[in-house]
């Protein structure tokens, strides 16, 4: 039987409770063996916003995942030191002994054709679409031929975002319970995201 791996990419700037809760929900709903957290080096779709160094983001992810044997950290995209394209990451993890599932937020479904070599992604991976909005997104027409490879998570909506956390930290507002306590201590020690 093939091992089932979820690939969870993102900037994780910083990683927070929403990421972890959704990953745990997906892990159990789809009976995955592992979820691999893959921070991006330079995200191709995001520009002109504050992003801390790859080293800090990797350290925070490692801290957050430390006590969960089903969550794994990979610095594959960081090591490339270039824009992070998902198809290359999936090719790196692809193995005939494994089945891959790419986790994406539902807001990306209607824009999935803007992703580099997006159709090739379906040759090596299924999609698991994470709910971020109440009504959710439907499969757009250009993806209907891949509908058997697109799965919708019934995860709860977690209205916490990295941008919200960065904004609160910049204003010296509490982010307690929004991110793991040890990650918060790291942020405070390294003076990240503050004024």
Name given to the CATH architecture:
3-Layer(aba) Sandwich
What is the assigned CATH homologous superfamily? HUPs
Mean pLDDT: 93
Rg to the nearest angstrom?
16 Å
The main sheet orders its strands as: 3-2-1-4-5-6
CATH topology: Rossmann fold
Oligomer: single chain
Summarize the main sheet. 6 strands, parallel
In DSSP terms (H or I, runs of 4 or more residues), the helix count works out at 7
Q: What gross morphology would you assign?
A: globular
What share of the residues does DSSP label as strand, in percent?
15-25%
Strand count? 6
Helix and strand composition category? alpha/beta
> What is the count of distinct domains?
1
- Intertermini distance: 51 Å
Tell me roughly what share of residues is in helical segments.
25-40%
């Amino acid at each position: 039987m093939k091992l089932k791996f979820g690939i969870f990419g993102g900037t994780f700037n910083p990683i927070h409770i929403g990421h972890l809760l959704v990953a745990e929900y997906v892990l159990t709903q789809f009976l995955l063996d592992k979820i691999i957290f893959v921070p991006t080096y330079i995200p191709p779709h995001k520009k002109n916003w504050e992003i801390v160094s790859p080293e800090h983001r990797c350290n925070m992810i490692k801290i957050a995942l430390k006590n969960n044997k089903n969550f794994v950290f990979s610095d594959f995209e960081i090591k490339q030191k270039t824009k992070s394209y998902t198809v290359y990451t999936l090719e790196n993890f692809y193995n005939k002994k494994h089945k891959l599932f790419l986790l994406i937020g539902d807001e990306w479904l209607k824009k999935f054709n803007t992703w580099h070599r997006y159709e090739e992604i379906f040759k090596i991976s299924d999609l698991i679409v994470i709910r971020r909005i109440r009504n959710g997104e439907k499969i757009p027409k250009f993806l209907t031929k891949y509908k058997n490879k697109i799965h919708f998570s019934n995860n709860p909506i977690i209205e916490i975002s990295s941008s919200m956390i960065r904004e609160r930290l910049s204003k010296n507002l509490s982010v307690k319970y929004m991110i793991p306590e040890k990650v918060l201590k790291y942020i405070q020690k390294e003076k990240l995201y503050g004024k």
